[in-house]
């Protein structure tokens, strides 16, 4: 019986030590509401250039990169396209984000993501957030899907974000 009492006492101490007595409840599933945050201010997010096919083969799946200097930006831009953007990004005033949706079949025979919206916010005195929203396009089951593999594309977008603040990127899928 003594062993059970020690076990229960140890379990109680462990629960108290794991945050059972928080001042503020922890709920990671609560959505962040930018309109409700009085310190969040929407800032410009302008498309620099986009495309469906990269200039060189790019390894990996969907990816997002933030470029805070011109050297890193040009290194990646040269891999994606040989076209020059109409408006050159000003890295003294902002930064550039690359949204690469990964390799996809150019057909409706497989599920694929498409970029729905891009919104940027400055919050408080030091931070910024880029909110990316995607649509999940489900495959269409039909006899029209070819037996051979469809052409592969790799949709990508470069966006200029008008802030130099350190930025986090949040992503969501429309339901």
The biggest sheet, with number of strands, parallel, antiparallel or mixed sense and barrel status, is: 4 strands, mixed
Q: What is the helix/strand order?
A: HEEEHEEEEEEE
- Rg, Å, rounded: 23 Å
Helix content: 10-25%
Distance N terminus to C terminus? 54 Å
Q: Roughly what fraction of the amino acids lie in strands?
A: 35-45%
The low-confidence runs, each spanning 5 or more residues with pLDDT under 50, are 18-35
Number of distinct helices: 2
* Averaged pLDDT: 82
Let me know the number of strands: 10
Structural class: alpha+beta
Q: Reading side by side through the largest sheet, how are the strands ordered?
A: 1-6-7-10
Shape: globular
What do you see in this structure?
The chain is an alpha+beta fold. Helix content is 17%, strand content 35%. It contains two helices and ten strands. The strands form three sheets. A four-stranded mixed beta sheet has the order 1-6-7-10, with no helix packed on it. It has a four-stranded antiparallel beta sheet with strand order 2-9-4-3, covered by helices on one side. The protein starts with a helix and ends with a strand.
Summarize this structure briefly:
By secondary structure, the protein is α+β, with helices and mostly antiparallel strands. It has helices at 2-20, 70-80, and strands at residues 40-43, 45-51, 63-67, 95-100, 104-105, 112-123, 127-137, 152-153, 156-161, 167-173. Helices cover 17% and strands 35% of the residues.
List the helices and strands and how they pair.
Layout: H1 2-20, E1 40-43, E2 45-51, E3 63-67, H2 70-80, E4 95-100, E5 104-105, E6 112-123, E7 127-137, E8 152-153, E9 156-161, E10 167-173
